[in-house]
Write the structure tokens for this entry.
Amino acid sequence: MQVRNPRNGKYDYELVVDSPEQVGQKSKDLRSAQASWNSEGVNARVNVLLKLAEKLEEQKEDIINQLSIDTGRRKISRIEFDGAIGLIKGRCFSVPKLMEEIPVRDSFSNPTVRIKQQQVPYELVGVISPWNFPLLLALIDTVPALLAGCTVLLKPSEVTPRFIDPLEAIVEAMPELSRVLKFVRGGAESGAALVDNVDVICFTGSVATGKIIAMNAAKNFIPAFLELGGKDPAIVMADADLEVAADAVIRSAAGATGQACQSLERIYVDHTIYDAFVELLCKKIEQINYNSNYEKGGTMGPLIFDKQATKIENQLKDAIAKGAKIETGGTVDNINGGSWMMPTVVIDVNHSMSLMTEETFGPVIPVMSYNNLDEAIRLANDSNYGLSGSVFSGDVEEAIRVASLIDAGGMSINDGSLTNQVFDATKNSFKLSGLNGSRMGNNGFTRFFRTKALLIQTAHPQSIHSQEEDSSSV
Ligand code: NAD
């Protein structure tokens, strides 16, 4: 597969794809290593993962360089790398406590029986990740699964695969890790083969692919943890600090060029502050530039995935045809062969437009006015997605009340996209945004176990005669 450099549009890297047979062989090898990995205990696994973090730090510049080439952004790649290290260290710190043995106890329902509970990890976990944060989203499920005692087969996105080479080289140089973590390179076909070979699948990506994965997982009778797209709403209440709200909305909606699942994509603003808020957004956006020449600074990087530009343009065309107006931005610019887009504020929008209903995954900020809070909540909930969202208000208690009424798994109060900065709060993805246990918080670790009950009879077992019919049973 040819891989494109988003800053210049050139295909300058070749990805050698794993065949389904190779995926099958890697799965077999991993399965044969799982029992000993599990029996080593959690503290030994923590040491291996901490050593991985150390080795990653040693190769930091090379990995960041590969991420930068694939995503067209240097600063964000650096932040992403540090986030990945924080993720490993955080999990290593928290998981030993979660694996403490549960004391054996008497059963409440049958007092002669003692109960011993065990946590049994899945043998082989499959991880399939997307292109927007290639390293972090590859490791976010991999790390807790390994710590739980599972082995992992990981397939990063074929759109941004360059970091696999240095990461795999580090893993290969650690025999204690390379036997339990293997990589698959490729796209849909390799991903499908992976789903056919594992015991549980953790998938991050689009709703369309998530549905295919869910169906294939169902066919194989394995659990699928799905983290999918979003159309995150923000409600800006009349008493909100407009400076706070505008800064947070712009960073959340247009940061990483809007290519984040938890980007704010719909902004509902109280009608009394609507004009002032739109004006403030546009004024702040005037200070933002492309970073097409790294040396000259600038904030906005290119769109990573070339097909994304067409999708964004089509949504804008549809919105304009239905009466929307672009206040600032609005075009995809070709610079040196890459596709670039400035933060784009769109007004006069409504829910008949795909811009307000479908995930955009670009730096577009549609702003709609509301007359009262009931209307704002109804509009925010009028969506097939339920990933996350924001509420801005001077009254935090009122903001919490409103946030509680939004159908989404993670709500930020007086900020945007806090779910990408906080890994230790449990949160589910609602509606089409995902399925099954939270990847965040303790549950992001415990979901890799099946709980087993060992039931120890301490009295003489009941005989079959206890079921004998007599006059009392009539
Ligand atoms: P995608 O669905 O196109 O691809 C994701 C991964 O699935 C890739 O590795 C791809 O090769 C693989 N794949 C494709 N078809 C497959 C198949 N039939 N079987 C198995 N694997 C297959 O998603 P994308 O475009 O890479 O990523 C962007 C999407 O990811 C957006 O919708 C975004 O919202 C979502 N996302 C969600 C989260 C979250 O935590 N909820 C985080 C980041 C991104």
